[in-house]
Amino acid sequence: MSYATQMLDTYPRTFNIDAGLLASTIDALTDCAQACTADADDDLSEQNVAELVKCIRLCMDCADICTTTAGVISRQTDYDANVTRTMLDACAATCKSSGDECEQHAMMHGHCRVCAEACRRCERACRDLMAAMK
Fold it and tell me: Reduced to 3 states, what is the DSSP secondary structure of residue 104?
């Protein structure tokens, strides 16, 4: 059981959203942030680092946005749905961009393949949570 699930299980109020969906989105966000951070670092270790500059930049942006989004959606007390939707939308867009770029390098670099998968999972999770909020 993830820490997100454990923490949501202890929340003293009722949720406006399915707690399981919320927990799986938080997990996808934290996984994606970690994968993007590691991928950017791995890219910096490659001999062809100049060809990976865009990938590095997008991964760093994605990691930051995923981390921030995880924090925002983890706070449920009196949350503002407009802020949450905006964060999730921005995160989904960033994950798509990062995933698209990582896929371009996936055949040559296994770390880019793994990162692309994490980005795609996170993009779907953000979109699923937004859809459930409507």
Answer: helix
The dotted CATH code for 17-133 is 1.20.1270.360
Looking at the chain, which runs of residues are DSSP E strands? none
What does each of the 134 residues of the chain score in pLDDT, given as a tens digit?
A: 899 989 888 888 887 889 999 999 999 999 999 999 999 999 999 999 999 999 999 999 999 999 999 999 999 888 788 999 999 999 999 999 999 999 999 999 999 999 999 999 999 999 999 999 87
SS3 2: coil
Cut 0.70: pTM above it: yes
The Cα–Cα gap between 40 and 73 comes to 25
CA-to-CA distance for 15 and 101, rounded, in angstroms?
Answer: 36
Torsion angle of the four alpha carbons 64, 65, 71, 72, in this order, in degrees rounded to the nearest 10:
150
- Where in the chain are the domains? 17-133
